[in-house]
Write a structure and sequence with these properties.
The structure holds two protein chains of two kinds.
Chain A (H helix, E strand, L loop, with lengths): L6 H15 L5 H28 L5 E10 L4 E8 L1 H24 L6 H20 L3 H19 L6 H32 L5 H4 L2 H10 L1 H18 L7 H5 L5 H11 L3 H13 L3 H24 L3 H22 L2 H20 L4 H12 L10 H11 L4 H19 L6 H19 L6 H24 L4 H23 L3 H28 L16 H15 L6 H10 L6 H26 L16
Helix pairs in contact in A: 1-2, 1-4, 2-3, 2-4, 3-4, 3-11, 3-15, 4-5, 5-6, 6-9, 6-25, 8-9, 9-12, 11-15, 12-14, 13-14, 13-17, 14-15, 18-20, 19-20, 19-21, 20-21, 20-25, 21-22, 21-25, 22-23, 23-25
Chain B lengths: L12 H11 L23 H12 L7 H9 L5 H12 L4 H9 L16 H7 L3 H17 L15 H10 L9 H8 L5 H8 L6 H10 L2 H12 L12 H20 L25 H28 L12 E6 L4 H11 L4 E5 L7 E4 L7 E3 L8 E6 L18 H9 L1 H14 L19 E2 L9 E2 L2 E3 L3 H14 L9 E8 L22 H12 L1 H9 L9 E8 L4 E4 L7 H26 L11 H12 L16 E5 L1 H4 L2 E2 L4 E5 L9 H7 L2 H17 L13 E3 L3 E3 L12 H4 L7 E6 L2 H10 L1 H8 L3 E6 L6 E5 L2 E4 L8 E2 L3 H6 L9 H4 L7 E2 L2
Parallel strand pairs in B: 1-2, 1-9, 3-5, 5-8, 9-10, 12-14, 12-17, 17-18, 21-22
Antiparallel strand pairs in B: 3-4, 5-6, 7-8, 10-11, 13-22, 15-16, 18-19, 19-20
Classes of the chains: A mainly alpha, B alpha/beta.
Chain lengths: 618, 847
Amino acid sequence: MEKYLQFFIYIPILGYLISLLINKKRESIIANISIATSFVQLLLLITFSFFWYTTGAATLDIKQVTLLTTPEFDFFIDFFFDRISLVFLFVGSILTLLVSVFSKYYIHREPGFKRYFNNVQLFFLGYCIVVVSGNFETLFLGWEMIGVTSFLLISFYRNRYLPVKNAMKVVSLYRLGDVFLILAMWLSHHFWHGNISFYQILDVEKTIALIENQKTLAIFISISIIIGASIKSAMYPFSSWVARAMEGPSSSSAIFYGSLSIHLGVFLLLRTFPFWQHLIIVKIIIIALGLLTSLICNSIAKAQPTVKTQIAYASITQIGIIFIEIALGYHQLALFHFMGNAFFRTYQILVSPSVLNYLIHNQFFTGVVKNLKLPSKLSNTFYMLSIKEYNMDITLFKYFWLPFKKVSTKLLFFNNRFFYISISILFLLGIYLDINTFQSHPVMLKAFVYLFSLISLILILLSFNERKSSINAWFNVVYGHLFIMMSISINSHIQFKYLLLYLISICFFGILGYKAIKNLEKETDFITLDQYHGNSQMHPKLSILFLIACLGLIGFPISPLYIGIDLLLTYIESDQYLIMISVGLCLIFIEISLLRIYTRLFCGIPLKTTEPISFKSA
Amino acid sequence: MNLPPISESKDSVREIIAQLKHYLPSQSPLKDFVHHNSLHAFQDKSFFEGIFNARDLFGYNVTLNIAEFRNLYQIGRINHDVLKKVIIDNKGVDQLDIWLDKLLKAQFNFQNDQQVGKIRRLWKSEYKIDLDNRVHPLLFRIICAYLDQGISIWNFPNNGQGFLENLRLVEANSFSSFFKSRRAKALFMDDKVTTEQLLSLIVGDRIPYFNYLFDQQFAHRGWSGMVSAIEDNPSSLLDVKNVQLNDFIHVELLLEIDALDQQFGTSWLPLSSTYTSDKYDFFTTNPLAIEDEVLMMFQEAFEWSYYDQVLFSLKSKYAPTKDNELAPNFQAVFCIDERECSLRRHLEHVASPCATFGAPGFFGVEFYFQPQNGKFYEKLCPAPVTPKYLIKEFDSLQKRSHSIFYHKVAHSFIGGLIFSMTAGIVSIFELIRNLFFPTMTPAISNAFSHVEINSTLTIENKSPNDMEQGLQIGFTIEEMTQRVESQLRNMGLIENFATIIYIVAHGSSSANNPHHGAHDCGACSGRPGSVNARVFSTMANHNEVRKALQEKNIHIPETTWFVGALHDTAADEIRFYDTDTLPNALDEKHKLFSAQFETALDLNAHERSRRFASINTKANLKEVRKEIKNRSVSLFEPRPELGHGSNALCIIGRRAVTKNIFLDRRAFLNSYDYTIDPTGDILAKVISPIGPVCGGINLEYYFSRIDNQKLGAGTKLPHNVMGLIGVSNSSDGDLRPGLPLQMIEVHDPVRLLVVVEQIPDIVLKVVKSSENIYNWYSKQWIHLVVINPKDGHLYQFKNDQFVPYETVSINTDKVQNFKHLIENATEMSAFTIENATTENLPIYYLN
């Protein structure tokens, strides 16, 4: 039975690859591929489940393929199937199928028809990987695809200002969640002394025994997972991103933020439940979080005067309740609740434009309810807070992003030739150290490790704050990457072939991006980073090339860096949390800086065009 | 608090606001959609002067760009001879080659540097603060919550005292605050603080408030325009809100102070401190540049390339007197709407020798309508008219159906829990059903639900005291007679009455379409005209009215019966009203005729289907018709119909002028018989609504097509319904007035050409008789050509007089096989003008 699990991945991969090849003018072929992919997936699932049930419905697990083995680390793709996978796969396939049919007509003649379907397909692939994944490494593969496709679909109308701004906002938050997931992976690597699959967690005795010994570590792992899940599922205080994400065509909003994407936090909690169920404090945290979110988002939903955001907050309210259900152990209920909520909100968003006609008509016949009485001070306060969405956007900006902005502004001090020359010398020194392992000088070695990871963080924050030169910003990231690699290499003396793999990928994508920027510079006069240039309209090919380069450096599964990053992390010892924090921050800001360069250069309102351009506020 | 004194030299804020209101978009809440000229503020200037001025001030695109025009020339849509003619007309023969070279080859550098926004840009450049980003999200949320008509479940506390007053109440009665800065809050709560004082705080004294406020309000013209429109016409909302643009600006200024205080403390200097230039002129008028003249001549050449074919075809077939036609078996009166043009053609073909007429779709009866159980009145007449009458509906058997998917409980904590586990599971089946077997549901705007088919209407007034809310219920016999007479004379139907005369109104059903009102009848304030058709028919069937008409020399035979009907222009369906009152003797005939209507509708659906990618036009007729109907009830269909897209002509004359000419649904057809109007009095009545109604529609399509981003609503796919009054692109976006992309794709941006069949001198007299009519034509927002029945020649209205028009075209093709023509017509594949325009077919003669 297990060996058929891989087909749940092959079908969407195949569908995605085929649809990439189709000419963008062949609308109905592109749409039909998407429809066929999800339909075949659904048929396969139904057949598979039938046999699965008749053969006892046992939990399935298969170690599909090992990508890399080192003495400390075994990177393998693992598939897993149980009731949770079944329900999520079912809901995902049927909704993707129906929304693809819907979109075939809905998106007709929209510039970007192919882009839309490609993104939906890639999203579907990511989703399928997540829900049949058997270990964190596999899950994370899909998780990243979902993050990137969300970014691309929110900024579907990439030549307007707000979609691009909001896409950045959402993807930054997603990235934060990703890094907490990476943190959880790193911690659990040390917790289990090796990589494990979800199947192994099911071994109750072993898990309990390990938790007994390392309770703090277990709680940290659980909290990282909770934060990762909370960001994806928009728990408080991250809820406001869903409202900002309603920028693409209604159909994509419906499938992403109404149903599938937003319930992935639910999935993550269900999947990791066998682990954290033994920790009462974690359960209490999840229940409290779910309840708080439900209450707050319910009040926001009630005060929302726009239809899509109202549905978004109403959906989060339910997800809060689902979180509680999971923590209490009512998983059948949670799954049913998820299914109902996903179907319901998808449909509500799809029919949301009709609300104007329906409610006005209704009001015409039932009259207007006047509220002349002033509500109590307390309910008034809640009303006002709800209008302001409990300041979630501002708070997150002020207490999370702004400090980094301020720090990176202070770092401009380093933005001079002297700094770059010195770190280059240091880098060479690092190579020398690395080759002639200074095992005899552990203190000095340590100092270098910390120094290098600090330099990498500085470089990446400099890139994040670069306001002028795209080339500088780009090279700061590339350079930062090299320093991360060097710092960990010195730390643990990684085999040369892995370093080479890492190095080659960095160089390849680094040069690709550089070329793209240079070519763009030739075509247009100036490409400073202090404003949007909207070049994707005029230079679509460069836009795609540059995006690929960015994704490569981010560590998207198209590049070996993806394995490289995972690999590197395992070399960070469990007591080196400072390095881990530094690397974590680097990973966050690498993605943000790169996508920032991408959006500034290629998205936003085009500066030079004879086509009508939109207002900034529209 | 230290507030600077107001200097005397400043314009008063009140005057600035009056100016602002003139320039802001004036689109009402979406439930009433009335087409109007998007650049109405510039209509006191001539067309090109006005639109280029609008471009310079606000940065709108106002014509196609030069590359697009040159492409149109390349593919032959701009005729070479017409282009030469236009250049000669404008520049003289000796300049022809020079200008031809400029139009076709010269390189131009088009700069788009608008006036608006210049001052407030300083915040970003000098203060390094993006004030719009800081202020807009909260400002939009507050105004949307305040104006919301029923999306939110918690309403904004409203005591009717106005926006500012209610906001203060909320602020005072809460532990939270809209403001972070103490100073902003204090300024807000102090009702003695004037808007001028806030302005002097922010702007200082060296920059005119005028410039600042224009910059500020045009940074979100959608919301400002909506506030202004609601202030002027509060009854455009069911849940009436008292709101004033002044209050809105006041709050925005306070939020700006709040943002600035947060960033810089309270010690920042006003904007003036950074501004050194002394030039503040906002309304600069630049003379036409060479580039503008090039665009102007291209635009004219584009328009006349099409008009010329039309005029040639009309002229070549023109016969001033009536043919010895057969007596019509029935007559049908349609709205002048260009979407009815094809149905009339098919009906005449299928049901020969029937006769069709065109008249504005409210059929000359203006009133408010109250459906049974309705709590409000609906206006059913052109927007500028204020009726004094009320028609109420009784005895309706129609039950209003509900949809659980919009139920408010679904958004609550427990309700949502129950709903998602019950309705949630149902919704997937609902979605499957709608995708694969679309049918009418309560969520869909249904043109036929407007009035029940056999309900009773209070058409006849019982006594002068029968009033409600200051409106007279029903019409007196005299009032009825007057309306019926006037309507019949206007369309030239005063003799040869057939036994059945159908009064066919129109409406449009569509799903998932916040702009559905824009598809309904423009002459009925964006609603279906079914009630008007019923009212007019009942009046014309009334014995007393017929008697009174006899005295006015209109003899309607006793055997003649008027039957009201409604044509759904999206679904291509028709329903007839009050058929139970039809005399028995006519039953059989009506049955026959309605079958002929059905056949005509099949053909009409077929003709329309050529523009829809999802329908195979070559499939059999019934199948095509079914597909057409499905579009009107499909959630996934952003183009249930194409509305007025491609409209370009308005022909005022006898049907004989246009009969058997294929105009591709691009002409408003208004019946008018010059032979019974030697003085032009009737023409004056007929032509006066053409400007505001047809001209308004045409210009709204023109501007939404030319600049769909700034003057149109953009693509409708991401639209989010805000407060049931408008749409925006996202949760934080500005409202988007204008038409969405999906309505204007097929539209060729040309001005309306009005063709009148009448003696030029009479038309000249009529046009000059009223300034309202005159300005439309003399300032060239509409073109006017007369076809003179005396000599059969064409005369163009130019420089306030009629001059002979010589056509350039030499031939009009004849269609041998109409079905073939439709099935093989090209369909646009991309939204570029040179591609889209190929969908619009040339003029043909039909057999």
